């Protein structure tokens, strides 16, 4: 008896299909930058408090020298975050609305002379009880150093001397303006 | 007509079916995105660019060489990528100098605003051009450089300090580098 295979040949196809999730999304990494900016802030105050107003020099004769009293010392309040140099300049600054315009402006100089005055600042770390002219710097109309490398946040006490011109008229009045300037001691 | 006798024979036995098989291969490569920020010498992970004090409005730029402070981007990805960046900076802790105020990135340095620029250079060469990164979030990230698969590169940054600041405190700026296919 013949038995025939009616199924015939067939092929087995086995398909393996692996589906993997979609590709990874963006990656992020980070780094840090540490930096500070020079912050320069100062205040000028009276030694006993309050914003500094003016140093009044009265009843002084030609060629004489005026020195601040203890109560007239300027407290330099240092709000800077870097070491600074303290500079200053001075000039005769007449106000057109006041009597001091009646006289010729004085000139800042290294020695007093006719219509020329000499001005000094000295800088101390604490209120000076015996300030000395040898501690000071001559201040002219262009900024010059009073003290270098003052540490960040370190206050100072400024004492001034004024040598008036060798000439003058009784009742003569002048308004002298002195600027205090700070700059970073070392430029980054 | 003869009746046919249909004899139904049931044969029970083993039926052998001839078999054949064949196969084929599917090769799949999955996109792999990964990179690290390394120091210029590629000897350690990159952490901080410590600039220190800057004058207001002045610039600081990363330096060249394996001893420099620029960044080596170690790209382990197997596809082309776009590298973008953005930065953020929170208000610092009060330090006694002014009022602690957050900085923000900008196209031009201003009050409490810094300008961050980044570019691709070489180990011993600064970038020929920088791109400003003034975005403050991922959506605003700016393109730094596009790489081929696995391409490493040297990354440089340049910072322009704010032209004026509300405080004299130390600030930390976090720079995010993002790689996308």
Q: Sheet with the most strands of chain B? A: 7 strands, mixed
Low-confidence stretches of chain A: 1-23
Low-confidence segments of chain B, given as residue ranges, are 1-13
Count of helical regions of chain A:
0
Largest interface: A-B, 40 and 63 residues
Mean pLDDT of chain A: 85
Please state the CA-atom Rg of chain B, rounded to the nearest Å.
Answer: 32 Å
Overall SS class of chain B: mainly beta
**Assembly form of the protein:** heterodimer
What is the global morphology of chain A? elongated
Order of secondary-structure elements of chain A: EEEEEEEEEEEE
Helix content of chain B: under 10%
Structural notes for this entry:
The complex is a heterodimer of chains A (about 190) and B (about 180). Chain A is mostly beta strands. In chain A, about 0% of the residues lie in helices and about 40% in strands. Chain A is built from no helices and twelve strands. The relative contact order of chain A is 0.25. In chain A, the strands form two sheets. In chain A, strands 3, 4, 5, 7, 8, 9 and 11 form a seven-stranded mixed beta sheet that branches. Chain A has a three-stranded antiparallel beta sheet with strand order 10-6-12, with no helix packed on it. Chain B is mainly β and about 180 residues long. Chain B has no helices and twelve strands. Chain B has strands at about 20, 35-40, 50-55, 60, 70-75, 80-90, 105, 115-120, 130, 140-145, 155-160, 170-180. Chain B is elongated and about 90 Å long. Classes of the chains: A mainly beta (about 190), B mainly beta (about 180). Chains A and B meet through strand 1 and strand 2 of A and strand 1, strand 2, strand 3 and strand 12 of B. Strand 1 of chain A pairs parallel with strand 1 (about 20) of chain B, so a sheet runs across the interface.
